[in-house]
Design goal:
heterodimer; A: 110 residues; mainly beta; 6-stranded mixed β-sheet; 5-stranded antiparallel β-sheet; B: 112 residues; 7-stranded mixed β-sheet; 0% helix
């Protein structure tokens, strides 16, 4: 089993739709969790950290389920500019190794 | 504030050649990392450093070397380039090692 797995893409959704991505991780000792966004041919950029209590940033909501070892990202009212690849990132060895998932590609269509 | 600066942005190497990918950050971050990203794959850690003078291997270190003589710079050296090293290379830095990364814009390397 891979350390971090994500929903296979691509997800093609119309503007205004709500879309959710899931990510599972294999190491129960994982400490920190993040979602990154990567535009085509660009570097990844931190979208949001994922806290045990869940967190929200505008149209984006992240949830963590430690018992089931998965995290999720919900995007409401999708915009064309949300089109990108979303990377799930897990850190189980403090400071030393963030493990990146392969990413899920989202295309928001007009 | 430049953040993380990588040079060059693009490079084509012939098999067997060597080169150094440069990475510099101006945020006084202790943690620095080198990743490679192949099409459709997640980023793979090559080497990392938790401070000046300290480096350690990541998941895919073979064929690469690094040094960290200052807090700001973390160059990645490729010796005897091979086609399997064709990839996009990202340098990243972090303040605490657990607060998320700031990435450079990447170096696209092709080995022919």
């Amino acid at each position: 089993r891979k350390e971090v797995e994500q929903d296979p893409g691509p997800f093609n959704v119309p503007e205004g739709a709500t879309v959710a991505f899931n990510c599972t991780y294999s190491n129960s000792a994982s400490q920190s969790f993040f979602w990154y966004r990567q535009d085509c041919r660009k570097e990844p950029k931190l979208l949001m950290s994922v806290y045990s209590s869940g967190n929200e940033d505008g149209r984006f909501t992240a949830q963590l389920n430690r018992a089931s070892q998965y995290i999720s990202l919900l995007i409401r009212d999708s915009k064309l500019s949300d089109s990108a690849t979303y990377l799930c990132v897990v850190n189980h060895n403090y400071g030393q190794n963030f493990v990146f998932g392969p990413g899920t590609r989202l295309s928001v269509l007009p | 504030n430049a953040g993380v600066t990588q040079t060059p942005k693009f490079r084509i190497l012939k098999i067997g050649q060597s080169m150094t990918l440069q990475c510099a950050q101006d945020m006084n971050h202790n943690y620095m990392y080198w990743y490679r990203q192949d099409p459709g794959m997640g980023l793979k850690l090559i080497y990392y450093s938790v401070g000046a003078g300290i480096t350690d291997k990541g998941e895919v270190p073979n064929g690469y070397n690094v040094s960290r003589s200052t807090t700001e710079d973390f160059p990645l050296r490729l010796e005897l380039a091979a086609p399997s090293q064709t990839s996009v290379y990202f340098c990243a830095s972090s303040w605490t090692g657990d607060d998320g990364y700031t990435f450079g814009s990447g170096t696209r390397l092709t080995v022919v």
